[in-house]
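#dry-run=false #mode=assembly
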Amino acid sequence: MLILAWRNIWRNRRRTLITLAAIALSVTLVQAFHNLSYGVYQSMIAGGVRAGSGHLTIYRKGYVDSRDERLSWRRGDLAEQAAALPGVEAVLPRVYLPGMAQSSRESRGILLTGIDPRAERPINPFLKGLDDTRMIRSLSGRDALVGFRLLKELKLKPGRKFVVTVQNRSGDLASELFRVRGVITTGLKDVDGRLIMVGLKKAAAMAGIGGEIHELAIILDQPRRDRDVGPALEKLIHNRRQLVVIPWDRAMPNLANAIKLDYASQKFIFAIILLIVTIGVVNTQLMSVMERYREFGIILAVGATAGRLRLLVLTESLIIGLSAMLLGSALGSLATLYLSRVGIDLRSFVSESLEFGGVIFDPVLRAAWDFGYMTQIACYVVILSLLAALYPARKAGRIQPAEAMRKI
Amino acid sequence: MSLIQLDKVCKTYRTGNLEVPAVVDFTATIEAGEFTVLAGPSGSGKTTLLNLIGCLDQPSSGQVVLDGRNVATTPTRKLADFRLRHIGFIFQSYNLIPVLTALENAEFTLMLRGVPQQQRHQRVRELFALLGLEGLENRRPNDLSGGQQQRVAIARAIAAEPAVVLADEPTANLDSRASRELLELMHRLNREQRTTFVFSSHDPQVVDMARRVISLHDGRLADDRRREP
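#status=ok
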């Protein structure tokens, strides 16, 4: 039966090849473009978590929604304990304070961010490009990194002084003099126009919160380690009920929602592609059955059951589906390999940096392997090929031999 | 008990609002080992009668009993199995499966019966030797002459050693020499293997060689003659 099915599908070589090519091409397209999106999303998430919240973040309850600077908390040795957990690459304590920056000529609203420069520098993509001469030197010094646009708006230059004023915990205004040490360019208009980074202790002292912080960002060596590290962090804070562990998608809802929305629209397109392919297979198989109406009558006449005939049609479709799946997956892998190594360079199309969901991403789009999804699509295609053959198979099984043989 | 019993069999086809009687009140019995021809002009009901005997169609009224089994009351699946084990078919236009080789076509019914490949090949090679088809095992139907294709169809029909072989105008597409050879071959199989043959034909050559000729006219039994061998 298998030999018969195999030879049957090659009766109309051109039609089979067109069907095969259509299915294989759709598998290739879906796999390659999913992997490209997956790679871009991964890179956005990686950039986002390293510059922003971390894969997992410890906050005081209510801070994520309110961003109320009064919701700071004493970290104690929590940072050291978290850093010792397997899978944790870095732990970044941060203080965030809204305030005002004044140069001799201009003043602007800012977000003062207190960081640990030693811990932050190897992780944060915006700090990686800064050499020692342009980096904050201590936790409590007057060095400041200023956003590119803010620097322009305040009409400052590296080395120049400016004053930052914030409201401290007791409601009084606290001002400090800082010196521009380096300039940060994130590509995000809003961030570049508001960001000032200073030493963690200096920021905390201005806010009057001593050794407290607002955010403890946990960077993982593998994003999937969050399944182990998350519960371990929960254990560490179980006796500090005011704290919560938040995953990146809750800490950065804009990015998470933008990715979800983008991926949902892609899934819709993928579904349409697969639907068109299924209709194509139904059409091919139905034509193939109708063309062999008389022959099926003969096969039934010599003693084959309707079930065997149905099985024959399903086997033919399964062979086409499997062949197309293998071919499509091979081409999809090659396309992914190319897209992961070379990528799609958008630099000639866009003059400025690309922002998505509040995160800057590389204008050279690169794919990443998502083997789980590739396998899923491969299985879908085989299952769809079988489903597409159900109606033609049913039709074949209902042929009446005497009636079929009367047809010329 | 007779191998084939037809009792007051009627078969009517419906074409739009018109009812066309193909077989009317046909009664006959055929014994095992007979070599029978259903003779008559085109449209006299020969093929319909063969289809009824071969369980490919159900009578509109009357009874078709094969080897003690009433066709009308037997489920479709069992009828398929009955055809596979007891009936061989030879068709006017050979009806071989074009994508299979001569050998694969001939062994098709054995394959459906689940006979192991080695046994199938042995049986088919014996038949090919008997039918003069040696050396043609791997040819596809399109690469065979009409006579060769019909002999492969005979091999397919008799490979599973059915009780009865039904042949619908088997010589219609053959020249007179190929027809004669084919008939002699079937005669020999009838004599040597006691296979029952029921033909439909209006070919005088076929009618002359039959030991029993059942003549049909407008779907009715017109004559039933037996000849001494």
